[in-house]
Design brief:
The chain is of the alpha+beta class and 130 residues long. It is built from one helix and ten strands, in the order αββββββββββ.
Length: 130
């Protein structure tokens, strides 16, 4: 029995498990994921998914184009937050609930949810969620 080899295997397995949990939290819960249309986070997809018992989330990622970030809080049926899209990149904001999105001072409203294509900069959102 080689204890050193077994310890290395356990360390690697634990590292992989922790990385998978972190990736799930960033991509699925906070809602920051790579888009399918361009490599290396040039296309960012924001899809916040609050779940019962979780009242806020923040995810930041340094991409080759700059910082991509989503932050949100869920309180009394309202989900509101902010998105940061890096320069020379673009993003989609996807949501299923009625709400509004503000980018560069322009408000976009939707009664049923949808997807908005966003240019670089800072955007805010406010949604009604169950």
């Amino acid at each position: 029995m080689d204890f050193r080899r077994d310890a290395v295997r356990l360390f690697i397995a634990e590292r992989i498990r922790r990385q998978a949990i972190g990736e799930w939290l960033v991509h699925s819960v906070a809602g920051l994921a790579p888009g399918p249309d361009a490599p290396a986070f040039r296309h960012v997809v924001f899809r916040p998914q609050p779940c019962q018992g979780l009242t806020s989330a923040l995810a930041t990622l340094e991409t080759p184009y700059g910082r991509a970030e989503i932050s949100w809080k869920h309180e009394k049926g309202i989900l509101e937050g902010e998105l940061v899209i890096p320069p020379n990149a673009f993003a989609d904001f996807e949501f299923l609930s009625p709400g509004s999105l503000v980018q560069d001072g322009t408000s976009h409203a939707s009664k049923i949810g949808g997807t908005f294509r966003l240019s670089p900069g800072i955007s805010s959102f406010r949604l009604r969620v169950p």
